[in-house]
Write a structure and sequence with these properties.
This protein is of the alpha/beta class. The protein folds into two domains: 13-257, Aspartate Aminotransferase, domain 2 (3-Layer(aba) Sandwich), CATH 3.40.640; 261-374, Alpha-Beta Complex (Aspartate Aminotransferase, domain 1). It has helices at residues 14-19, 31-47, 61-72, 86-97, 115-124, 146-155, 175-178, 204-211, 230-233, 242-257, 261-278, 304-315, 342-358, 367-374; strands at residues 3-4, 53-58, 78-83, 101-106, 130-134, 136-137, 142-143, 159-163, 182-186, 197-202, 293-297, 317-318, 330-334. The protein has a seven-stranded mixed beta sheet with strand order 2-10-9-8-5-3-4, sandwiched between helices. It has a two-stranded parallel sheet with strand order 1-12. The chain has a two-stranded antiparallel ribbon with strand order 6-7. Helix 7 (175-178) links the parallel strand 8 and strand 9. The radius of gyration is 21 Å and the shape is globular. The chain binds pyridoxal-5'-phosphate. Pyridoxal-5'-phosphate is lined by residues 8, 60-62, 87, 134, 137-138, 163, 165-166, 186, 189.
């Protein structure tokens, strides 16, 4: 069994595992489940600082993104796709799939989206139904300032779809203050439940736009409108994955009771970055560091595969490489959710030190010691 220190899935707390093994009822017929589902959705909304409705969908994070696109996009709709990373530009595929016309707004992959540049662009181009933006683009770890981006888009009447799957609950998210219309999250990142669930928080403006469609949503499973009135009717569009939802609820109970949650992520993120740079490694990004993941370049003396293999074989620790254009180029340590703790990070960084020494990489000190001093 490996210690999972990847940027999602993460380690899963025992309370979550225990909740997933509770006796099951029939979630379609037993009305107490409908209450439990609604209560859990309301808890998520409240942790995200909004009264907007949240829906938990039976499917992994990608379903949330596809549901946002399927439910909002009508054939011919123009959609602004903010792109400074792999997930960012990837959203264009969903827009296209549902007949929309994606327009990429691309900025430097190594930096957070530049707000003043975006502002200048929007002054000239703002005829879009909605825009998509990724909060933390996990393959590079770049964090975009959605507290500024979403209000800016709203100023032009552009609805916002935010993919915060790998940031929320590790980075601050305030749906009302940021004016987010559709916010997508997933169970397996900073929430630290196993993969399998996504949840989407939906503004009144987004609901209106969905209801004002002239064409039907070209999907059943990804149609957010199928949940309309579920509570009044005590009826779900499909049988809910009850054990997954019990686990998710336990994960949110843990988050709710941990008042230092965000502060801990900020401290661990900063100390990890300091540890990585102090020992002579190079952070992949120029700025826009997320406190949920640290990404550094693979040193020229070795390969990503060798680092990952020795971390597994010698130390029983799973960290991650990356994919697409970043395959083989960077290493990612996930310190989100249950992974964001001192002991696991010290163990991981010390193991990394030993692995790099063994591979002949000239590291100047043990990053675990810098991490501890910095914390
Ligand atoms: C993890 C993640 C998702 C969910 O998708 P998978 O690639 O299937 O894990 C979506 N968006 C972002 C930014 C993620 O990090």
């Amino acid at each position: 069994m490996y210690k999972v220190m990847t940027p999602g899935p993460t380690q899963v707390p025992k309370e979550v595992l225990a909740a997933r093994s509770l006796v099951c009822t029939n979630p379609d017929i037993d009305e107490t489940f409908c209450e439990f589902y609604k209560e859990t959705c309301e808890k998520i909304s409240s942790l995200l600082h909004t009264k907007n409705e949240t829906l938990i969908l039976g499917g992994e994070g990608i379903l949330g993104l596809e549901a946002a696109s399927a439910s909002l996009t009508e054939p011919g709709d123009r959609v602004l796709v903010l792109d400074n990373g792999i997930y960012g530009r990837g959203f264009a595929d969903f827009v296209q799939m549902y007949g929309g016309i994606p327009e990429l707004y691309s900025d430097d992959d190594l930096s957070a989206l530049d707000i003043s540049k975006l502002d200048a662009y929007l002054k000239e181009h703002h005829d879009y139904k909605y825009a998509s933006v990724v909060h933390c683009d996990t393959p590079s770890g770049v964090l975009n300032d959605i507290s500024k981006i979403c209000p800016l888009l709203k100023k032009y009447g552009i609805l916002t779809v935010v993919d915060s799957v790998s940031a929320m609950f590790g980075e601050p998210v305030d749906v009302d203050a940021y004016q987010i219309d559709l916010l997508c999250g997933g169970s397996q990142k900073a929430v630290s439940a196993p993969p399998g669930l996504t949840f989407v928080t939906i503004s009144e403006d987004a609901k209106e736009a969905m209801k004002a469609r002239k064409t039907p949503v070209a999907s059943f499973y990804a149609n957010l409108l199928t949940f309309e009135g579920y509570y009044e009717k005590k009826w779900f569009p499909y049988t809910m994955p009850i054990s997954d939802i019990y686990g998710l609820r336990a994960a949110f109970d843990l988050i709710e009771n941990d008042v230092t949650h965000l502060e801990r992520h900020a401290k661990i993120g900063a100390a990890t970055r300091k540890a990585i740079t102090s020992c002579g490694l190079k952070l992949h990004l120029k700025n826009g560091y997320s406190n949920t993941v640290t990404v550094f370049d693979v040193p020229p003396q070795t390969t990503a595969d060798d680092i990952l293999r020795l971390m597994r074989e010698d130390h029983n620790i799973l960290i991650a490489g990356s994919f697409d254009t970043l395959a083989g180029k960077v290493i990612r340590i996930g310190h989100m959710g249950a992974n964001a703790n001192k002991a696991d990070m010290v163990e991981t960084l010390h193991a990394l030190y030993q692995v790099l020494c063994k591979l002949g990489v000239p590291v100047t000190c043990d990053p675990a010691e810098v991490f501890l001093a910095e914390l």
